[in-house]
Structure formats: structure tokens, C-alpha cells
Amino acid sequence: MSEAVLEVKSFRTVVKDKHRELILVDSIDFAIGTKEVVALVGESGSGKSMTSLSIMQLLPRSVAIAGGEVRFCGTNLVGLNKRQMARVRGRRMSMIFQEPMTSLNPVLTVGTQLTEAIVRHLGASKMEAVAVAEDWIRRVGFPEPARIRN
């Protein structure tokens, strides 16, 4: 394996209430190298989504990372504040959610959602973001990208 792009060591996630602590992700270890494809598989309820959400630090308030490391390109993401993590998420690392019907907001146009992400994560102007969004729409095979964007 080449040098690890993502390395997870002794990683734990827990949910706490007033009386107890429940382990959701228990001391997992893995590494993913450059150009390596890895699948996380398991039974329903085995922790695949919670593992991914934990790595991305997209957790509900009652859930917390309880230990371990998540190294992305050499930087330990555990312990980064929200602003620092937001700079990693979307631009350098992202997650494809398993439920396609909840991935886009149905009250906003596709163009609004794409351009918002482009402006936020790529630092483009609104006009540049519109052009990039239309190019992305065209590249995935949709005809009339301007119409689709709107």
C-alpha cells in the first residue's frame, strides 16, 4: 500500500446520557492509500454510517468522539474546531450520503445548491460558480445545463 491518505487508529465514538455511555464505534483501525478503493461493509446497524459520520465529524450533539486518531493527509482531524474542520470538509474530503432523496433540498434549485458549494469550498465568485455548475451538469451528461441549473 502507498502512503495513507486516510488513517484511522483506535477510533471510538460514544453516545452519552445522564446514566451511561454507549459505545457506537469501538476502536476501529484502517488505512486507505492513494488510488486505493475501499468498501466498508456490514449488516444493517453495524456502524458503517456512524463510522463515516464520525470521521467527517457530522455527529448529533449527544454523540462524541471518545478517542483515537483520524489522520487525513498527515493531519489529525480529531480535535480540530468547527471552523478548521469545515475547511477540510467539502474541499478536501467529502461524504456521499446513502439516501439520494435527502441529498438535495427540494425547495432550492440544483443551481443554487451547486453554486453555494462552489463559492464556499472553491472560493469562486457567484458568476464563476454559475459557469462551473453548468460545466459540471454538462459533464455528467445532462443536456441544456442552464435550464437544469435553474
Automatic annotation (TrEMBL):
It is found in: Membrane. Its main location: membrane. The keyword 4Fe-4S does not apply. InterPro entries: ABC_Ni/Peptide_Import, ABC_transporter-like_ATP-bd, P-loop_NTPase. Residues 26-143 form the ABC transporter domain. The keyword Transport applies. GO terms for molecular function: ATP binding. Pfam families: ABC_tran. SUPFAM superfamilies: P-loop containing nucleoside triphosphate hydrolases (SSF52540). Keywords: ATP-binding, Cell inner membrane, Cell membrane, Membrane, Nucleotide-binding, Translocase, Transport. Belongs to the ABC transporter superfamily. This is ATP-binding cassette domain-containing protein. It comes from Paenibacillus gyeongsangnamensis.
